[in-house]
TrEMBL record:
Modification sites for N6-(pyridoxal phosphate)lysine: 182
Pfam families tied to this protein: DegT_DnrJ_EryC1 (PF01041)
Gene Ontology molecular function: any one: pyridoxal phosphate binding
Family listed: Belongs to the DegT/DnrJ/EryC1 family. L-glutamine:2-deoxy-scyllo-inosose/scyllo-inosose aminotransferase subfamily.
Essential cofactor(s): pyridoxal 5'-phosphate
Record-level GO BP terms: polysaccharide biosynthetic process
Protein name, UniProt field: Glutamine--scyllo-inositol aminotransferase
Protein source organism: Streptomyces mutabilis
Active-site residues (renumbered): 182 (proton acceptor)
Keywords for the protein's UniProt record, in alphabetical order: Aminotransferase, Pyridoxal phosphate, Transferase
Domain of life: Bacteria
Keyword Acetylation: no
Length: 388
């Protein structure tokens, strides 16, 4: 099976893990701090602004907790988002409000966000679909003018930039995911960025039980009674550790190589699929935008999309659609709203395999199978009969 995602780990990562074993310190420690510092440098910010955590989802929950949301508050987010963002909102007193997206980029525009802003809006969450930065600069400027917190779900965008500036640093808070399906992988893990230094220090406390200072071995150097606790407010334990940080540090060094191969695969897909009747490929990036190329998505007639996915699966090619529209999920209490861009994209979009482990032959195999499936299913739909 040609998979949608596949982590790229090898001897360098194994050697890094072996070093952790040799040092006999697997928990939160010096490698965690070093990884935070290296990632902060990658972003172009100070290390005090980032915290290595155990998942990008934990970052979304920490972000919401740090805002002290109250009953009646609203958080705007695109309907085509991972469900973790909606879960993070509904576990607070606030209400998620879903906005539409551009049907081709699957990212919200400023106009999409503006349509649902009210005087109760406390925060806006944007997802950079497939690594495309989207309209985040304009959205960030507008949120800043209105005093609304902007949270960037940068899970897909570890190497995305706008005019040289790292995606994730355009708003007030951001988080990245390093799970086994992402571009930079640590097995499980994530990073959260907080622009305001005081809020960043608070998020760091919340990520480790709410403790004002560590109470263990390290604190013994500076306190005669290091076991005593100071907890300004309760938190949870979602910090990263040296084992996953060691893997992450290697992956971060390899990031240009990993993203470079993704860029080559995207270019090959673009060439192979450029002239397929009835098939749309991702739009070109605007000038000054750089993508991590996490997804490669195609769009086609909704009458054939599901059948095409089934044909590819039977041919040994796994595809899917990410992300299912959240405004249709009853658990989030969404009113009966119409989001035409989201609905249009959800009915027509399919994500193709994209990871550095794909060979040129693999990409050609996917493209050839897709061309054939689209042609066969289109012909069958036109004739009014199922394809053989």
């Amino acid at each position: 099976m040609i998979n949608l995602f596949q982590p790229q780990v090898g001897d360098e990562e194994l050697d890094a893990v072996a070093g952790v074993f040799q040092d006999r310190w697997l928990g939160h420690g010096p490698r965690t701090k070093a990884f935070e510092a290296a990632f902060a440098e990658h972003l172009g910010v100070g290390p005090e602004h980032v915290v290595f955590i155990n998942s990008g989802t934990a970052g979304l929950f920490l972000a919401m907790e740090s805002l002290a949301l109250e009953a009646g508050d609203e958080v705007v987010l695109p309907s085509l988002s991972f469900l973790a963002a909606a879960n993070a909102v509904v576990t607070t007193a606030a209400r998620p409000v879903f906005c539409d997206v551009d049907r081709r980029t699957l990212n919200p525009t400023l106009e999409d966000v503006e349509r649902v802003l009210t005087e109760r809006t406390k925060a806006v969450v944007v997802l950079h679909y497939g690594g495309y930065p989207g309209d985040t600069v304009r959205i960030a400027d507008h949120c800043r003018e209105r005093g609304i917190t902007l949270i960037e779900d940068a899970a897909c965008s570890v190497a995305s930039r706008v005019h040289g500036r790292a995606v994730g640093t355009l708003g007030d808070l951001a988080m990245w995911s390093f799970d086994a399906m992402k571009v930079l992988v640590t097995g499980d893990g994530g990073m959260i960025y907080v622009k305001d230094p005081q809020q960043a220090a608070r998020v760091r406390r919340l990520a480790y039980h709410g403790l004002a200072q560590p109470s263990g071995f390290g604190y013994a150097k500076v306190s005669a009674r290091w076991w005593e606790l100071e907890v300004p407010e309760p938190g949870r334990r979602v910090i990263g550790n040296d084992l996953t940080a060691a893997i992450g540090a290697v992956q971060l060094r390899r990031l240009p190589e990993l993203v470079g191969r993704r860029r080559q695969i995207v270019a090959q897909y673009d060439r192979e699929l450029a002239d397929v009747p009835g098939l749309l490929t991702p739009p070109a990036l605007p000038a000054g935008h750089e993508s991590t190329h996490y997804f490669y998505w195609v769009q086609m007639d909704p009458q054939i999309r599901d059948d095409v996915a089934g044909d590819l699966y039977r041919a040994g090619i796994y595809t899917t659609f990410r992300y299912a529209p959240l405004h249709k999920v009853a658990a989030y209490g969404s009113p009966d709203i119409t989001l035409p861009g989201s609905d249009w994209a959800a009915d027509r979009t399919l994500c193709l395999p994209l990871h550095p482990g794909l060979s040129d032959t693999d990409v050609r195999t996917v493209a050839t199978a897709l061309r054939r499936a689209v042609a066969a299913r289109t012909a069958a739909a036109t004739a009014g009969a199922p394809a053989a």
